[in-house]
């Protein structure tokens, strides 16, 4: 099953053309990028990063007092409204239930919710595969289990290039009997350190009702 996901399109506002593919003499399928570079389609190196467990216990920041609740599953997202603005989807069937933006910076977030439960490890694979459709050079640079507000989930960082812009995409991936959730933050790769505190504070506001 392939989840609906809009990877960075609302941030970069670019139309992504169909991925060009070719077959080598050895029978391997390769993806051809617009800049003349290519990579093997079955490049599992970044997908198969070992998932270790981070021993740190992550909790909601004390100043994240406003809570957005999903209408599709039990997910909830606490945030500081002095720092963050949000827009709720007008469609009950939209994959992105909430779009978020840092009021004083170029940092963005999305709450992607589904009503169906998906195996956690499979959920992050789907997210990675969908990211590579938009940016074929996308790689997973970090993946780990975390306990956030009492819930075990996966944290994943992906980095890639779209139309010459290097982006970084960081998020929490969670699933239970009420459905699955991808709560993610994204910005230009060079800005991640600048917004490290804001990124962590937003993500750690994730919980279940």
UniProtKB/TrEMBL annotation:
- Signal peptide residues are 1-18
- The answer to whether keyword Signal applies is yes
Q: Which UniProt keywords apply?
A: Signal
Q: Which named protein is this? A: Uncharacterized protein
Q: Which source organism does the UniProt entry give?
A: Shewanella violacea (strain JCM 10179 / CIP 106290 / LMG 19151 / DSS12)
